Amino acid sequence: MKFIFCLFFSTIIFGCQKEKSNQPNPVVADSVVISKPKIDLSKTNQKAKEALEFCKAKNFNTDFCILIDMSLHSGLKRFFIYDFKKDIITNEYLVGHGCGNSSWSADDTKENPSFSNEDNSHLSSLGKYKLGARGYSNWGVHVKYLMHGLEETNNNALKRIIVFHSWEKMSDEEVYPKGSPEGWGCPTVSNNAFKQIDQVLKNSKKPVLMWIYN
């Protein structure tokens, strides 16, 4: 009787173990999943509306503009080509900002950049710009666009040699939670990104607005 009871009990245990072994193993994440911040579309759309009115008043290109939202983490795409006709963002890219007193080409201020219009500050300047002449650059794909600052916050751009150019250190894809490398104040994009943007800019018959805001 004792033998039968032990055999019956062993059968139950074995059956439970077999059933348990058929269950999928729990997946343990190797790293913590980090939730990326998202663009505030209502803010972007409002900026686009204001930008369009500005472009109409100043006889700028009213097909598109460039919006750069520096309130976003630098490891996220925050450089937007905004199509006024479709009323949407058609392309978005990473863009670097100035390092200030931090290390050049590092990402020390990726979450909280500072801004200045002062010469030798090595900081980016907020405000509206008219993209000017296309010329040679020592950086990236060797093309740059002059940036004419149109406000008190950025009217020293030409004097400071703040220009739009590419940089081989910039990534094509988002690098969050890391940040983009920081230069001396120029808005810099990847070589591939610049090639795409350049095609649009050089075909524009009217000045293009670039608006850097926070």
Walk me through the topology:
Layout: H1 2-21, H2 41-58, E1 64-69, E2 79-83, E3 88-93, E4 127-136, E5 143-149, E6 163-166, E7 188-189, H3 191-201, E8 208-213
Parallel strand pairs: 1-8, 6-7
Antiparallel strand pairs: 1-2, 2-3, 4-5, 4-8, 5-6
Main traits of this protein?
about 210 residues; alpha+beta; globular
Mean pLDDT: 89
The parts where pLDDT drops under 50 for at least 5 residues are 1-30
How much β-strand is present in the residues? 15-25%
Shape: globular
Rg (CA only): 26 Å
Helix coverage percent: 10-25%
Structural class designation: alpha+beta
The separation of the N and C termini measures 83 Å
The ordered H/E elements are HHEEEEEEEHE
Task: Please describe what this structure looks like.
The chain has 214 residues and is of the alpha+beta class. 23% of the residues lie in helices and 21% in strands. A hairpin with a 6-residue loop joins β4 (127-136) and β5.
